[in-house]
Amino acid sequence: MASYMSAGLPAAHDGASLDDQIRQLELEGSILRSQVDEILSDVTQRPPQPPPPPDTPTFYDSSSRPHSRAGRSRDQSRSPYRGNQRSSSVDAILAGPGGAGSRPSDYHHLADSSAEQHELDTMSSKLDAQAAAATNLQQRLHYTSSASPLHHSGYYQPHHQQQSARLSRTEVLLPPASAERELRESREQAEHLRRELRSAHDRQLREKAELRAQLDGLRARLMEANGQRESLANQRAREAAAQDDLIGRLQASVEALQAANREQEAALLETNRRLDTAKRRQFGLEAALADVRGVLADVETRRRGGRPFVEGEPVSQQEDGVLATTLERCLQEFSAEIEDRLRDIGSLEHELSESRRSFLAEKSELEAAWQRRCSESADQYEAELRKLRDRSAEEQRRLELVAEDARREAEQLRSKADSRSSRVAELESTLSRLIDDYDRDRKAWESKRSALESGLDSTQTELAESKRLREEAIKESALIEPRLKSAEAEVEELKAERDELSEARDSAETELHEVKTKLTAKSTEVAELRALIEALKEESDSLTKEQVTKALAEEQQYTQAQSRSLATQLAAETERCELQAKELQAVKADVTALERRLADQSEERLEIEERLSASNEELRHLTERLRQRDEEVARLAAERDRQYEQEAGRAQQLASVLEDYRHLVSLFEDRSGQLAALESRGRLGVAELERAAAERDSLYLELKDSRLEVAALRADSEAARVASGREAEALRKRAAELAARLKDTRAELALARDALKAKEEAEEATAAAARRHQAAPSASAASAAAKKQQRRQQQLQERRLMALEADNERLVAELDTWARQCKEATNSARQAEAANRRLRAQLAACQQVLRQQLPQQQPQAPPQPRRKPPPVDEGKSNGGAGADDIRAALADIQSLLGRRPADKEAVGDDEVGDSAGEGNGDADADGQIKGKAGDNRLQGRRRGTAGGCEADRALSPTSRRLLRGLDDKRGTSQQ
């Protein structure tokens, strides 16, 4: 059995190594699965792109190329041909023969259409800048929330590329060239994805080959275990052969006993022959009787101060008949003394049994206390684990609540978009009413002007000029129509290219899906291999156990049969010996009574002496055993103290484990706080987007001169609805990322649970080793097992501590980055708010002055037929500027406002200003919230402010004069 145990140890070690290798394979599979999930999340986290409007970016590169609508609007607004043509047409209309002509309504319609086109271009540039700011904000949130290296390598663009992309928006780019560049970039990205998929496939093949090699190693180890099992069977066969040899030796001893019996029979015959010589030796017996008398006399002298056995008759004076009584009394005294000593020995044995019983009771109490402590610790661990499960369920519910809040916010955004559409309809009605009022005023002014011009005789010339102008307008419209058709064709081509890019994206997603399916197949294959290994292991263990039990049972049956046969042989030989002894006794009965008595007395004396020597030897042996038991009791007491020390060490270890558990719980709570902070940041981002949408709606209030502006507002409301859907999708992705972090936290808790389980196994192994040590001392093996378990626990604790330190460092770095970004965003927001307030004040003053001057200048501007308008004299008073100069100044100011994307809160008429003031009254209080939108939007505002300064330098002299006059008036009013 010892040899079987010694041979079974390597098999157990091999099983442990197989389990370790299987766990390592599972860990590698989980790492591969996480990498592929990161690649898939890199693709799937990007929202599905609907057919974008002309002013929105594409899926692949939204920051490195200009928008199609923005490019077209900029090209159209900056085209020298179109700008010169528009200005020349307006000047011709305003400075034609007769000033405004005899039909000012037609001229005014053409001037209004050109002004509306100019305002549409400026508004398009504003919307492009706002869309770029929203896109940069989304990218910033996406890049800061993501931590995957593959994601950054696949879609992240450096800051200098973003700057170059933003600078490239100010250039004149043709749509076909940008589409080709987009197609080329999309193809490069698709090729990059294919290379990544190919590398993942190669890595999968390599790992599969490694797995096969490991399986071959496991098969080799299994064959080695089978060889060891065969060697064990051979060893058992050798032991059976040794048992057969022992049985043969026992049979030889039986034969030797039979030979001895035959010798005893020969000795009996020799005794019969010597009976005759016994009579001759009678005198020797008498001499022996005299010797017995002398021995009794010696005993009598040593007995209690020399007191004789029979009063008045010492042994030396007794007759032969009384000598037997004296010898009997002497033997009785010897037997009484032996009984006393036996009683002493019995009392010692009773004390020994009591001490053994107390030792067993103490041992059982210690085992019961140990089991109770283990059960209590297990209950505590189970309670802690239940608490952890409850907490994880609560976190899951919190995540569901966050997702529900995101959906609710998306619904609110949709409702806001609907309310905005209704608001647009109201604005449309308001605009139509204002246009009607403006038309009535203009008609009244034109009636006055026609009354003043009725006396002139240039009607026919003006009619001819008006016809010529109408023909020129028709020619211009004919020239514009093919350009519009070409633009529509370009739009169709861009849509086709967008469809091709979407197809390429779908193909990449299908390839990634195939990789995912392959990975799942590989994981299932690993699980099947593991199950196969477990089945092989269980089968080999069961076969080994069955063979060992069968061999033990056969050996036990064989030894029992041999022992029974030997016992029967010994019983037969014993009966023969007893029969021979009876015959010898019958022969000896023929001897005389004296010889029998003397022989009996001599035998009894020898027996008494032997019993005395045996009792002394037994007493010495019992004394030695008592000394050994005392030493064993002392050793057990020392062992008990050592076990108490070990229990104290285990209690310290459990305290350290509980401290680690509390640390993990605190870390989990910190993670929960960070999760709440991230949720609040997401809500702040949504609030910032809503604020941006409100600012954009306030900009829409400036477009009140045409129904085309109402259509643009509707398109912008649709874009806001799409943006709200994207933000909801971003919130869902954020919730998924938080769920992934919760999964990581659960993995850490699982590691802690495994550590606790390993510690419990170590404690159970230590307890088993202690029990084996009590049964058969093997302190070295128990200490080795305890050291091994301690090393494993230390390794697990070190791994857990390293993982926690890495998480803490990463969180600290993220917090520092967020704090720095928030600080920069706050400063930039404050600067932008100051610039906005300054520009709003200037705009309000300009509009007030224009409202005051425009009614005054309209009656004072008589028509100048067939003459050019007089040059502007900057030295004149406030009444020196004409209606044309005022209109030009108003157009310059509106273009200035259109070029400043930082000024998102324009002030309109009294009615529109009241409605806009309700939504933007708390701009100062929300400055810090706006600052958290991201660096990209702030940089856009800075560039917008710089562009506004350049626009100030590009104003006409009349506009500069008006602005200087406004500043002078503001200074005088302040003084």
TrEMBL record:
Source organism, top-level taxon: Eukaryota
Chain intervals with Basic and acidic residues compositional bias: 105-121, 964-975
Gene3D superfamilies: 1.10.287.1490
Low complexity bias locations: 765-796
Start and end residues of each stretch annotated as Disordered: 36-124, 148-168, 763-797, 853-975
Ranges annotated as biased composition (Pro residues): 47-56
Keywords for this protein: Coiled coil
Coiled coil: 176-281, 371-423, 456-546, 577-639
InterPro entries in the record: CCDC158
Protein name: Uncharacterized protein
